[in-house]
């Protein structure tokens, strides 16, 4: 009997508790995620360009490596890296003592040879006139002619030595071959400059071009005149444009890649020697696109967060090619034109969560554009 009474009391208490839990209202509240129009992107069709990857470096088409043409001591280097020069400007002065003395000696030798020739010429002309009248023998006239010819040969040799010494003296002054800037100074005052020693490099900044390489299996898609978009190493936020100017007919023997030369649309703020990488725009198509910032990668799958009928949905999509200019991705499936997605999906987002789109106040439009992306609020439970 006591056991039955305890069981009855326990069942009564359990039923009472269940009834109380059913009658107590749930205090869990659902809070919608607030977004502004600037946080959303409307899917539309746009032009997508793609093509082979091209990588290489920036080089100057017009450049000169100035080297010592005579052996001498470097007396003065008048220009430094980055200095602008005009055609004919003196850049480096070498010690010209030996070459100046040699030139003086050659000038004196040329003068003496000229006098000897003049004298021999006059003697030959006199004997020639006398030979005509029979006053002198033919042998005397021929001897005078031989002396005249020998003097003429010595004069020619003296003039050749004079020209050579004049040129050697001129080579002690290294001048700019064209207008540009000094790209690399490799000599200092007091250096011993042997023949062939590098002194300075002069480049023409307006002749900078992109010299890159394209894989041999994709070179058939590259044609002269095609647009090229590329980025310089360390400056991915600034895109540069150019056009294919020349395609090398022979592949590189070590990499088996084909060289491509690209003329640039604008050479400002570009430096010779920087590494660059981009794409040749050989293929273009119309497709639905999304910005790269809206993409969520999870392994081999790609997702976006779509806002539809006030709710947030996680949608898997299939990506196409990436536009080489804007960086947007083409969409093969998963979205339709006119769909709205989050521009910057960040934080903890819940599939099916409520979304409230608010209008951006006029006085805070700029701050809204720079504001951090909205994050889905976590649900609160009140005890």
TrEMBL record:
The protein's name is MexH family multidrug efflux RND transporter periplasmic adaptor subunit
Q: Where is this region: Disordered?
A: 363-383
Q: Any idea which UniProt keywords this protein has?
A: Coiled coil
Please list the residue ranges annotated as the CusB-like beta-barrel domain: 214-281
**What's the superkingdom here?**
Bacteria
**Which InterPro entries does the entry mention?**
Beta-barrel_RND_2, MdtA-like_BSH, RND_pump_MFP, YknX-like_C
Q: Which PROSITE patterns match?
A: PROKAR_LIPOPROTEIN
The record ties this protein, via Gene3D superfamilies, to: 2.40.30.170, 2.40.420.20, 2.40.50.100, Helix hairpin bin
Family named by the database record = Belongs to the membrane fusion protein (MFP) (TC 8.A.1) family.
Q: What does the record give as the organism's lineage?
A: Bacteria, Pseudomonadati, Pseudomonadota, Gammaproteobacteria, Cellvibrionales
Provide the YknX-like C-terminal permuted SH3-like domain boundaries: 288-357
NCBIfam families recorded: RND_mfp (TIGR01730)
Coiled coil start-end: 110-168
Which ranges carry the Multidrug resistance protein MdtA-like barrel-sandwich hybrid domain?
Answer: 63-202
Q: Is Zinc-finger set as a keyword in this record?
A: no
List, alphabetically, the Pfam families matched: Beta-barrel_RND_2, BSH_RND, YknX_C
């Amino acid at each position: 009997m006591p056991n039955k009474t305890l069981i009855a009391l326990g069942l009564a208490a359990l039923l009472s508790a269940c009834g109380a839990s059913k009658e107590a209202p749930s205090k869990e509240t659902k809070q919608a995620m607030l977004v502004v129009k600037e946080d959303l992107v409307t899917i539309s069709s746009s032009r997508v360009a793609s093509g082979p990857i091209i990588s290489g470096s920036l080089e100057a088409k017009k450049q000169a490596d100035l080297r010592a043409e005579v052996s001498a001591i470097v007396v003065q280097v008048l220009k430094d890296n980055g200095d602008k020069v005009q055609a004919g400007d003196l850049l480096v002065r070498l010690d010209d003592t030996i070459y100046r003395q040699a030139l003086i000696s050659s000038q004196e030798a040329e003068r003496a040879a000229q006098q000897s020739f003049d004298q021999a010429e006059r003697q030959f002309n006199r004997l020639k006139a006398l030979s005509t009248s029979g006053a002198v023998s033919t042998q005397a006239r021929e001897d005078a002619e031989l002396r005249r010819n020998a003097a003429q040969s010595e004069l020619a040799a003296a003039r050749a030595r004079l020209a050579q010494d004049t040129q050697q003296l001129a080579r002690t002054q290294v001048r700019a071959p064209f207008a540009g800037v000094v790209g690399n100074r490799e000599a200092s005052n007091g250096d011993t400059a042997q023949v062939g020693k590098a002194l300075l490099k002069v480049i023409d900044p307006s002749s900078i071009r992109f010299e890159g390489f394209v894989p041999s299996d994709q070179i058939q898609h590259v044609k002269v005149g095609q647009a090229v978009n590329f980025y310089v190493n360390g400056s991915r936020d600034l895109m540069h444009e150019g056009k294919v100017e020349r395609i090398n007919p022979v592949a590189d023997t070590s990499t088996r890649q084909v060289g491509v030369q690209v003329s640039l649309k604008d050479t400002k703020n570009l430096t010779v020697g920087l590494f660059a990488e981009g794409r040749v725009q050989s293929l273009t198509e119309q497709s639905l696109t999304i910005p790269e910032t809206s993409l969520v990668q999870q392994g081999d799958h790609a997702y976006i967060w779509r806002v539809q009928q006030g709710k947030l949905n996680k949608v898997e999509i299939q990506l196409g090619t990436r536009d080489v200019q804007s960086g947007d991705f083409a969409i093969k499936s998963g979205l339709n034109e006119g769909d709205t997605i989050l521009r910057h999906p960040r934080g903890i987002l819940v599939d099916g969560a409520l979304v409230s789109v608010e209008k951006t106040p006029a006085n805070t439009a700029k701050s809204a554009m720079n504001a951090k992306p909205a994050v889905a609020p976590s649900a609160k439970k009140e005890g």
